[in-house]
Design goal:
With about 400 residues, the chain is mainly beta. It contains 4 helices and 18 strands. Helices cover about 10% and strands about 45% of the residues.
């Protein structure tokens, strides 16, 4: 996934147990002190340039027996406000003095200011260093450690490929006005969201900012996309992320749920509508899993009020999926967002079969066999119908 901005993150933890011309890279960085007194700092960008001395992860133990190491990056997977990082320890030791050189470290980190939780694990020597999808939250094998410092995740979004369902753009509106009808709270949303033409492989990020007149009335939401359904000019987007409240040093609030976007027309029409159905967890709680199904919108929730844009423009694109095998050939499956030629053909076949079953139910078996049956006995009507629809 691509990064939207650059970022610097710092943080610390304690004892371990076990296409624009040149798009900006995903970047994650941090520095700080953990609850057990150890400190660390790290920075990595994707694509990873291992020869860059600025891309590193250092840990210095605070309490006696705490681990120490220097490590270089091996992988990065950023999504919205979170990322999974993989590192190879070049030199260092565990709390009991065991040499950790040549072992990997996996981190799961979320965007935090001043106070948060980092999740980590030192790998066994025979374990491969990989960076799984960070959107579901930290793996249960990772150990949590509180930190005091800052962590940042910049997830730059790539150009949306042709044939994708997508939602992109930004919009602003006044959230509230004073007695003189002067706006005192603004709300902004920016997003770049895409999936295949049938909703497969959703990706992207959503950012919402409520800007008030005081730090305490300001909040920012950063979220990764977990599902997308587009029908004409209406999109339902599933997200998982966190809310940061201005003027507060307490941990962020975790949230997850659905956003419904209606594309009302061109720029500054004041007709793009945004509704939110988000659940919030306790401050400092574990990340909430985002929805995997965006087929319906349950209705708005009070976590973030609905609004209609006064400035800006968000565009919803509903790309028709393939209906014939020919559209999947010559790498056409890539344009429709499928993982393989076979997956594209499978979708076309299933779509054709559903059409044939509907037609048989609507007109009766005899009429269906008369239209599609082969030979005097009108055999293989379903197979022939599917072949005609798929263009085989």
């Amino acid at each position: 996934m691509r990064t939207v901005v650059g970022l610097v993150v710092a943080l610390a933890f304690g004892a371990s147990s076990a296409v624009a011309a040149v798009p900006a890279p995903d970047q994650v960085s941090g520095s700080g002190t953990t609850s057990v007194g150890s400190t660390f700092s790290f920075f990595v960008a994707d694509p990873i340039a291992s020869e860059n001395p600025g891309e590193s992860f250092s840990l210095t133990g605070g309490q006696p027996g705490a681990p120490n190491w220097e490590a270089t990056p091996r992988c990065l997977n950023a999504a919205g406000d979170r990322a999974t990082l993989g590192w190879l320890i070049q030199s260092g030791s565990s709390g009991d003095g065991t040499d950790l050189s040549g072992r990997g470290v996996v981190l799961w980190v979320q965007y935090h200011d001043e106070h948060g939780t980092l999740y980590y694990r030192v790998l066994d020597r025979d374990e491969a260093i990989t960076c799984p999808d960070p959107r579901p939250g930290p793996d249960s094998s990772l150990s949590p450690i509180e930190f005091f410092g800052n962590t940042s995740v910049f997830d730059e979004q790539p150009r949306i490929p042709p044939g994708s369902d997508s939602v992109s753009g930004s919009a602003r509106a006044c959230a509230s006005r004073n007695i003189d009808q002067i706006c005192i709270d603004d709300v902004d949303i920016s997003l770049d969201v895409a999936s295949g033409s049938t909703g497969q492989n959703p990706t992207g990020a959503v950012y919402v900012t409520y800007a008030g007149t005081t730090p305490g009335s300001t909040s920012r939401v950063r979220a990764a996309v977990t599902c997308l359904t587009v029908t004409d000019q209406v999109a339902i987007v599933g997200v998982t992320g966190s809310r940061q409240r201005g003027g507060s040093s307490s941990p962020h609030t975790q949230l997850a749920g659905l956003i419904r976007i209606v594309d009302g027309g061109g720029p500054d029409t004041g007709a793009d509508r945004f509704d939110f159905a988000l659940d919030e967890g306790p401050r400092g709680g574990a990340p909430l899993p985002g929805p995997s199904n965006c087929s319906s919108f349950p209705g708005p929730s009070p976590a973030i009020p609905a609004f209609t844009n006064e400035k800006g423009n968000v565009v919803v694109t509903d790309s028709p999926p393939p209906t014939a095998y020919a559209q999947c050939r010559k790498a056409g499956w890539v344009r429709y967002g499928f993982d393989s030629h076979a997956a594209c053909n499978g979708y076309v076949h299933d779509l054709a079969r559903r059409k044939c079953i509907f037609e048989r139910a609507a007109h009766g078996i005899d009429a269906f066999r008369t239209k599609y049956g082969l030979g005097p006995s009108q055999d293989h009507a379903m197979r022939h119908c599917v072949r005609l629809y798929t263009g085989w």
